[in-house]
Amino acid sequence: MTQKRTALGAELVIPLLALGFTIYFLYSTSALQWEAKANGVIMGTALIVLVAVQLLRIGFDLASGRGDLGFGPLASPPDAFRKRIGIVAVTILLVAGLPWLGLSLGLFLAFAAGFTIMGVRPARRVLLVSFVIAAVCSVMFTVGLDIGLPRGPVENLFHHFLG
Amino acid sequence: MSWDLLGQLFASQLALWWIIWPGILIGILVGFLPGFNAENTLIMLLPLTLAMPVDHAFAFMTSLYCATHLGGGIPAILVRIPGTPGAAATTLDGYPLTQQGRGQFALVLSFFAAVFSGLFACIVTVALLPWLSAMGLYLRSVEMVVVMLFGLTLIAVIAAKDVWKGLIAGLFGLMIGMIGEDHIYNTPRATFGFLELYEGVPLVPALIGLFAVGEALMMAERKLIVARESSAKASSHDWGQTLEAMRYAIRRWWQIMWTGLVGLVIGIVPGAGASIASFVAYQQSRMWSKHPETYGTGEPDGVIAAEGGNNGVCSGTLVPMMALGVPGGSTAAVMMIVLQYHGMTMGPQLFTDNPQLAYGVFVGMVLSYAFMILTIFPMARFMSRVVLIETTWLVPIIIFITVVAAFSERQYMFDMGVAIVFGIIGYIANKTGYHVAAILIGVILGPLFENYLVRALRLSEGDPRILFSSTLANVLWALLVLSLLYPVFRSWLRRKKASP
After folding, report:
1. What are the CB-based long-range contacts (under 8 Å, 24+) for A59-68?
2. DSSP state of B347
3. CA triplet B73, A110, B422: central angle to 5 degrees?
4. CA-based, 20 to 30 A from A57: which of A34, A64, B458, B491?
5. How many CB atoms lie within 10 A of CB B414?
């Protein structure tokens, strides 16, 4: 019977992120007064010790053949992973495009793309729901809560006609 | 305060029902939306509250404030997105209950705990106001270091399932919480060159990323939030779960009362807040529970404790403002602006010069809670059905709306990017068993802990013995050690009894 091997590469991501950030923190505060770095040195040292122990545990698992350096859990199931990548990409594009598109148009396009990536069909349904949600959100964020998001062509058009 | 005055205050506040109710509705909506809070809403509504008579303005502001605390628990339970930082602890048991098809039960339980802990805290405040206001003076940086440790030990509790992963996540959060200017010299630390990080990691975008974005990305592999076998139970919209939750909460009246008191005491300390109170109340509830192993898996007492602590804070925050003229939090500071605009002087003389207003605020809060019961309880049956919406719709809606909402607190586009980065960290942590709640506790409590610790150490010129220099601090240390040792002692006792 073959035993399922653990994907230890995925398990390494958070400890390595933590280790990298801690080293950066300690480096960036090395020349500061003790008040600015005391807490960081205590917590950071503890974190480095913990990560070292975790790395040792992973090393033992690798050496004993209980695991490999794969990233399987992060990318599984494959169908959902494709959707996740798509949604994150659309979110980044939404944030990057918001200063030009404005909230209404930006959200409408993001929702339409997002629902399509998630597998909603037909296109007419996607467009209708995207339009309704984007309109409600725009009214809520810009008129109701007035949070000062950048204006785009739709907001400028409304501003032109409604003053 | 005489009974005559109390009766008059109830009558006068009851006459303001028409302004309390809109305050409650706006508050619930604001609390529901991640990124919005009572503070920024009250700032936006300043033109309205400044134009009102002062008692009307205060009734409106306090009802809105209390309702935001209650509203924050709704998305925390239904979709694991805390509407306010104070509701983060509610996700720990509220969301697992929703996944089991018991969303309505969890919502009603949280409403019950929120309303009655808030109500109880108000009544205690009215009765003990002079003594409570003095308490704020006794809890200084030395004592607050120990209070913070009460909350931080929750990391160890979460770490119980996998010690190394839990501690790494918690300490990683604490390190992230130290980004930004230090508390003494304002020197920037580990900001990656971003000016936007000088004030520290923005809490709301971090919260949105770790919970909303991270969880929504996890949802993509499921059809529904609820487990397939629980969807029939979740689709039921009768009163069954509502009544079950009310019966359960009544049986746990003591739990509601003491967690409300935890919130009240922590709320009195200027700078402390609902997130500390809810984590401390949750941690203490788990520590003293007869079945601590069920916490984090959908334990109803966990929901009660988190919401009790979260809502007990409301009246506590107003105590230092009214009695000492020191706002207990940013929302209280906005309320103070309105009072000062109307020529009110805060401090002890407010209670002698204008007792109608001073005590009326808390009586108004009691009525707000009473109105909240009527408003929110019937809605739970319908709210809980949100979980039946397919994730193909929910995932884009949650991610795009919450990422846009991340902009609202500071109005920096940068904060949306922070939400995305924390979302990816949250997703990786979820997938690999590093608990996001442990990271969040570190991010929330880390800067506060550092602030109090460094202040205390500076007073003693670096001598750590200052942490044991006051009677109150020593009592708190003893309680902390006791609460950490008690579960160990209890499980030893159980093992001893079980062994022949």
Report:
1. A61/A6, A61/A8, A62/A8, A65/A5, A66/A3, A66/A5, A66/A6, A67/A5, A67/A6, A67/A7, A67/A8, A68/A5, A68/A6, A68/A7, A68/A8, A68/A9
2. S
3. 50
4. B491
5. 16
User: How many beta carbons lie within 10 A of that of residue B74, not counting itself?
Assistant: 28
Euclidean distance between CA atoms B106 and B80, whole angstroms: 12
- Check if the beta carbon of residue B56 is closer than 8 Å to that of residue B404: no
Summarize pLDDT for B221-262 with one digit per residue, the tens.
Answer: 888 877 766 666 666 667 888 899 999 999 999 999 999 999
For residues B159 and B175, give the distance between their C-alpha atoms in angstroms, rounded to a whole number.
17
Two tokens at B448? 């506060």
Mutate to test the interface with A, among B163, B400, B422, B445 (most CBs of A within 10 A): B400
Nearest Cα to Cα of residue B89 among B409, B292, B311: B311
| Residue A54 contacts B where some CB pair is shorter than 8 Å | yes
Unique residue bearing structure tokens 């809560």: A145
Angle (deg, nearest 10), helices B355-376 and B300-324: 160
Is residue A155 less than 8 Å (CB to CB) from chain B?
no
Please give the structure tokens belonging to residue A116: 């399509």
Q: Is A42 on the interface with B (CB under 8 A)?
A: no
In chain B the first and final C-alpha atoms are separated, in Å, by 60
Pairwise CB contact (< 8 Å): A54 & B169: no
What are the tens digits of pLDDT across the range A103-124?
999 999 999 999 999 999 899 9
Gap from B411 CA to chain A (nearest CA, Å): 7
- What are the φ/ψ torsions at residue B431 (nearest 5 degrees)? -70, -30
Nearest residue of chain A to residue B453 (CA atoms): A39
Distance CA A80, CA A61 (A): 28
- pLDDT single digits (tens) B460-474: 888 889 989 889 889
